[in-house]
Amino acid sequence: MHEMPFVYNFPFFSIILTLVGGMCLPFFRNGKVAQKINMGVIIATGVMNFILLCYLVSTGESFTYMMGHWPAPWGNEIRGGPLEALMATMFCIVMGFSVLGGLGNIFEDVPKKKQYLYFLMMNLLLCSMIALIYTNDMFTAYVFIEINTLAACAIVMAKEGGETIVATIRYLIMSLLGSGLFLMGIALLYNITGHLLMESLHEVIMEMAATGQYVMPLTVVFAVTTLGLCVKSALYPFHSWLPNAHGSATTSSSAILSGLVLKGYIILYIKMMFRVYSPELLAQLHITDALLVLGVLAMIMGSVKALRERHIKRMTAYSSVAQIGYIFMGLGLNSEIGVLAACFHILSHAVTKPMLFLAAGALANVSHHSYEFKDLKGAAHKNKLAGVAFVIGALSMIGIPLFAGFPSKLYFSTAAIQSDYFRLPVVLVALAVSTALNALYYLPVCINIWRMKDEAHGHGHEETGQGHGHEDTGHEETGVYDDSHGHAVHEEPVTDVAAAAFEDAHHEVPKAGFSFRLSMVAFIACNFGLGIFFIPIMNILSQGIDLL
Amino acid sequence: MGFFLNHFYEIAAMILFGVGFMGLLLHNNLIKKAVGLNIMDTAVYLFLAQRGFITGRVAPIMGDNLEASVEEYINPIPAGLVLTGIVVSVSVTAFSLALIQMLHKKYHTLNLDEILLKAKQEKEKKKALEEREDA
User: Touching check for B99 and chain A: CB below 8 Å?
Assistant: First the structure.
């Protein structure tokens, strides 16, 4: 440790920077300043993690970083490798663009006095997720899980109203049950092994497994921690809180909750699988079988539930339940390629789902803020970029080649073919059914949003709205706010209050249209990037998994 | 019988954990849920604190006796974990109580089922109103 490269400090710097960046926001008490600081912090963190990623990939090593220079059994540690650095970089990118894309909605939905607090919560959320990714200590993981829970609940309830508070309390209760189970698991684990650091735990657990001691307590511990993290990442039977929380929050919140918050726990779980337990031991104790069964159930049931939804955001939220199922199914395949596919799916879902939510939010903005399918008919003509982004996201979720969803499905099937006779048919059938269901619920929406409104259903002033949309495309694509603003002016039936609200939104965030376009283009680019150049990403991921 | 007496604290902790967990999961009253949460967390702290305690030893604080050996002290790590855990559960409890207060102000009840029902009715009413406006 004498000549530790400077980049090894970066995980710690990212955690502390996001934390301090969040803590200084209350001094400004201004939403716009807070937003700029938040964005600066996200960019700085992303750049640091990217540099770390480049360094680790080029040297092909991983490291542990002692906090306060206390050596292993006593001190707290951070552990970084290519997998962690890649995930952290991706999280920063997705977080930044999700905030940018929903900026207009944030300034509209969150009361003005509380806007800076919203960005504070964003900072805390990023901090806790980065800490969950990098931590090497179980109890630190628990503390950051709780921070993550509170910040996530806070961004759900940021959009005030009865619906969001009810969604938040349900989310909070389920989350607390999950973290309670996780805490109990850690307490038992500490009791059995006397350690909290992942390496030391691993050593002791392997020793116990070899000698056949404490099999029962270890099974209980594994089951309890797994269950806790499953509840928190909304695996199928424990998903009841998700659709409401993700469906009713403001657009950016939904995007981040679905795209990132659920994944933070899964990454922690993957780290625990390899660094605390071992995949073989988990397979031996049938934990992976349970994950596989629940994952397959989630893939099918999530899609079936999504099929029944008529609310675009809730449908997308149920689709997340299905995608989480894919990830857990990959972890349950008992093979390294399954974990690889799961890791890739974390990335591809992280770039696709926020895009879908942001596009859905933007489409709703041009349809009188309604998320119902019938009101969204033809909405894509008023905001073309959002329409295109939604279609791309949908195709990616279905798993069409060239989009990010395809490589993960490819690797899932490869992993299934290489697995045992029980898993092979189950997984392949589940993949096929789930893909078909995905297509069944996404494609009608895509067609619906691009359909021309027919006269009979129209409100009589459709011509104005659409004419306006077309006319504006002349001088570049219209942003959400320009559009809705124009709408308010053109349409007589809209009440004055609504018009004033649109006006306000327009004045407060003059660049909302630009930031939305930027984020959409970035997400589309990321989607194609992951979908086409997946081989190098897979190489980095497999390098990272090998080093775990 | 000896087993139960020797492991009195662990058994109590596990029972309390179950009580708290089920309270948080199943109770309809939100305040009782918050109480359940605290019972659950406290059970874990009881468990940790008990496991860290060794009969006949003292807290590892260095007093006048500078030559004290490790053998005289209890394990301080569980105590540290409990302290951290208490901080976490205090903040979580504060947050959930604030939420419950907001819900009570809005719906004038603490029963989660009633709140869900009222929220649903409110939503339907809003939708009906919007539809009427549209028409």
Answer: yes
